[in-house]
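Ticket #4471: structure output looks truncated?

Reporter: J.K.
Steps to reproduce: submitted the chain below (189 residues) through the standard prediction queue, then opened the result file.
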Amino acid sequence: MDIAPPEVGLPIPYVRRLDPIAERTFYVARPGIRAIPSGAGTVTAFVGLQAFTLIGFLWAIWWPGPSSRSDYVFAISATSVLAALVLLVFWVLMRRYPGFVLAVLRSPFISLKVTDRRLLWTLPWMKAPLMEIGRERVTGGILGVLDRRGNGPAAVMLVPGDPCADIDGNIHFDRLPDAAAFVAALGRW
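Returned output as attached by the reporter:
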């Protein structure tokens, strides 16, 4: 090992390994659909009811099929107004809550990885991780009640005052695959 000379002025001696050690992976999870936030089911139910109403309106507009030119003009203009209203709702959601909408859309594709140095959230199409938490910021893990397949809730306990943590100092996962292995991987640090 090489130690930097004292005139460099570092607060601690800098140690550089000549033989770098590869990062070891302890846990990898790709939760898929289970990674969608818990409230998304309720939102989907309400969106489903509105989609059913929209289909009802389209059926009332287009059945029976238009027979004259004025009927076609009415059907096309009414369908255009409905499509514009749907797009307006999506636009308002994207303008007001872009982080939430993007998080829900990309949550099934997120991969969670625990290595000997850090905790990573990655997407397959991005080179840089979505979020990375170093080993020094994690104090442990909490395991919730598991189902018969070993899936269940878990939490990462972070150091007090960490900006990534919630009010309790944790990051929660609702339905993590093999949650016991995740908490065990956090304990290996």
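Triage note (M.O.): checked the attachment and the full token line is present. The chain is about 35% helix and 25% strand.
Status: closed, working as intended.
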